[in-house]
Design goal:
With about 200 residues, the protein is mainly α. The protein has 9 helices and no strands. The longest helix is centred in the first third of the chain and has 28 residues, at about 5-30. The protein is elongated, with a radius of gyration of 19 Å. One of its GO terms (molecular function) is transcription cis-regulatory region binding. InterPro entries: BetI_C, Homeodomain-like_sf, HTH-type_TetR-like_transc_reg, HTH_TetR, Tet_transcr_reg_TetR-rel_C_sf.
Length: about 200
């Protein structure tokens, strides 16, 4: 493969990623069911034929949006985790990252939309469950380290605690996304920190 071909391929991949990033905002605003190629064209200036070339069908584009958003969300927390060593601080990094997504609204709107579509699409359902597995594994590794270091006093299985922790995050995020005046983004963050400290039996 020539250097010219490789350069063109990288440029096309970047352009497709840019389109996906813009499409995320469109889907978050309009909802998946109401999003058409023409809506993404209006937001990006990329023609419908190009979108069809990138993604195939409208449904395939929407699934690509969900996958892009989920991957970007997971990758965004990595550099923040690298900056801290204490297991409790690392747990709070994940909590603040995910409740921060509530603050921006887009991430959680896409997450909710992906749940809805996953109920009807078996392939997407597997992808969404895989996303949960990655978050569960990450949380369980932090909880294991916290118990080992004496920061957490829980004697429950780390994966069970991880599942409960992510369920707390989901449960507090949904009313924020729905605009419940009693659960603001800041309130959700405080409630989550308190609940997590109890869940892991925080010490010190």
């Amino acid at each position: 493969m020539s250097e010219v071909t490789r350069t063109a391929g990288r440029r096309a991949a970047r352009r497709r990623a840019d389109v996906l990033a813009a499409a995320c905002a469109v889907v978050a605003e309009r909802g998946a069911d109401a999003t058409r190629f023409t809506d993404v064209t209006a937001a990006t200036g990329v023609g419908v034929s190009t979108l069809q070339y990138y993604f195939g069908s409208r449904e395939d584009m929407l699934i690509a949006v969900f996958r892009y958003a989920a991957q970007a969300d997971f990758e965004a927390v990595t550099p923040r985790l690298h900056a801290v060593a204490d297991p409790w601080d690392r747990l709070l990094v994940i909590a603040s990252h995910l409740t921060g997504a509530v603050g921006s609204d887009t991430g959680w709107r896409l997450w909710v939309e992906s749940w809805r579509w996953a109920l009807r699409d078996a392939d997407l359902r597997g992808e969404v469950l895989g996303d949960y597995t990655r978050w569960h594994d990450l949380l369980a590794s932090i909880i294991t380290a916290g118990v080992r270091d004496g920061r957490f006093g829980t004697d429950a299985a780390p994966m069970d605690v991880a599942r409960q922790a992510l369920a707390l995050i989901d449960g507090l995020a949904l009313p924020v996304v729905l605009g419940d005046p009693g659960v603001t983004g800041a309130a959700a963050g405080h409630l989550l920190s308190d609940a997590l400290s109890r869940l892991v039996a925080l010490r010190g």
